[in-house]
Amino acid sequence: MSLATMTPRKRSALTRGQLPKYTPYAIAGAAIILAAALMSVIGFNAFGWGVLSAVLFAAGWVATTAAVEGSRKAKDRLATSLVVGSFLVALLPLVSVIWTVLANGIPGLLQPGFLGTSMKGVTGVQDNASVANGTPVLGGAYHALMGSVLITLWATLISVPIGLLTSIYLVEYGQGSRLAKAITFFVDVMTGIPSIVAGLFAAAFFGLVIAPGTKTGIVAAVALSVLMIPVVVRSSEEMLKIVPNELREAAYALGVRKWRTIVKVVIPTAISGIASGVTLAIARVIGETAPLLVTAGFATSINLNVFSGWMASLPTYIYTQIMSPTSPSNPGPSDQRAWAAALLLILLVMALNLIARLVARIFSPKTGR
Amino acid sequence: MSTNSLRSTTGMGRTGDKVFSGAAMAAGILILVVLFSVAIFLLVQALPTFSAKPADLTGGEGFFSYIFPIVIGTLIAAAIALIIATPIGIGVALFISHYAPRRLAQGLGYVVDLLAAIPSVVYGAWGASFLASNLKEPYAWLAENLGWIPIFAGPASGTAKTMLTAGIVLAVMVLPIITSLTREIFLQAPKLHEEAALALGATRWEMIKMAVLPFARPGIISAVMLGLGRALGETMAVALVLSSGPLIASLIQSGNQTVAAEIALNFPEAFGLRLNELIAAGLVLFLITLAVNMVARWIISRHKEFSGAN
């Protein structure tokens, strides 16, 4: 390999006016070094260094391309840098949120008793003592966890039958009818209802029907179902639609009634998708805070009866621990509990998402027998 | 014999059919009833506000002057969120659909969807603690150097719990909505047009500009509208992040309030007329988001035949 063979290749007509392949690496190296130099002048931090290097790299690369390869190529490079840059920017909050929750939440979650005790009897006195003496933080989120589970369970019990039957109506009975079109449109609109409005609706409804200011778990469950039903309808509708028509026709040809066909053929075929859709809907509503805030109140002790009394839930627990710490002078323990509950909530939601994936895989109809 | 058995099952089966289709239809109608009763119950509970004496309401000058500043605050917060999230969301969607290697693309889609799985209260907590404490210095810098622009007028808030911070948190929350919807549409852009553009010598960006973006425009608009609906109604992020106050132009001073956060912060302690007033505020929010969502859905359904954004 001699220099003589390299030089003519570079000048060949096909590659003329193109940057050599090592250019991006060279510019990246220069950008990183230049960014480090600039940062050391104005005060170094790793985040600023990364951002500055990326910006310098993009600018340098676009400028070199513009000089050598022309403006069209330069525009293309600029667009590429912007698109990749926007993706990296979108990752920042995700990484940051997860990091913040993990870093702040793990100590609280590992505190013995956090998952097993409620906030009953835990007052500012205990929190002040634990800050002053360094003793473990008392109090836990058992009542909130149970409240979340119960309220979501009742919301699921209300929304799944309604949502599933509606999607059956839309796919099997109402195709193309005006009612079906109206339902589809308003279900779509319902997905956009602000969660706080759903809470207000449940509060206003029970306020008129039972007594003003009724705050129980079931009110919260009704509020959550308003948010959950459209999600269930949409996902089950999609799943019922992809059940092959041959299956239905085969059943009809055997003389099976329509409703038996739906119950015995259509739903079992689509059950994996329906189940995972329901799980995703649960994952969506279990993190809802605003509707619970106006419907379930704040409890500090364990209440397992959704029909009477205020009920705590994980999201409202997080909210109250942050907004009104148990000990106003020492918010540290409350913060710790709030972050631990936030970590618990995220783990719960992630687990539900994972279960949805697994369910979709396990229950999917066996093919190729 | 055979006719007998046929007849006997027919009777039973017909009842079953009727019951089942009736139940399915009833469930569908129930959904419509629920949506309308949301509006009606809110209206009934809100009525006392409109007939009450102005002096009895918060602020003492009637419902309009109470609701106006917080509606404007809601719009400001949503506007900040969309200004930040729209370009980034479209960029991320383009990255996943047209830039990332095929094999990575689906995984990256899941990563962005993860953003949607995090509960809003966690975003609120993150915004109030992590984000706000990191934005203090940039805000001070903005107040010092760009303070002549009204929206950056100083003095900057010492806690950085301001409208701009709340808007950034909202932007993070609407980003996955915009991304996932626009991604679907970008993926449906006609392959032949893309390949034709590339074959004529277009660069990747020119191909996207000529073949993908014009095709996806209605989808992008409706995705942004749906994001707007979410940003308008989002409660916890604003309630936790913003230290509220009267309407002001500066985004880096504490002040302003949104409808949803106003309800969440005051409802637990409210009683009597105040309760009606907050429900009336909820009704206003409901109507605004309803209008936004209906327009978005209408745009989508108009272009349904050649886009998958539904």
CATH secondary-structure class of the largest domain in chain A? Mainly Alpha
Helix content of chain A: over 70%
Major sheet details of chain A? none
What is the CATH homologous superfamily assignment of the largest domain in chain B? MetI-like
Tally of individual domains of chain A? 2
The CATH topology label of the largest domain in chain A is MetI-like fold
Quaternary arrangement of the chains shown?
A: heterodimer
Estimate the global geometry of chain A from the Cα principal axes.
Answer: flat
Helix content of chain B: over 70%
Percentage of residues in DSSP E strands of chain A: under 5%
- Give the domain tally of chain B: 2
CATH architecture descriptor name of the largest domain in chain B: Orthogonal Bundle
**CATH architecture group name of the largest domain in chain A:** Orthogonal Bundle
Low-confidence stretches of chain B: 306-310
Q: Which residue ranges of chain A are poorly predicted, with pLDDT under 50 across at least 5 consecutive positions?
A: none
Mean pLDDT of chain A: 84
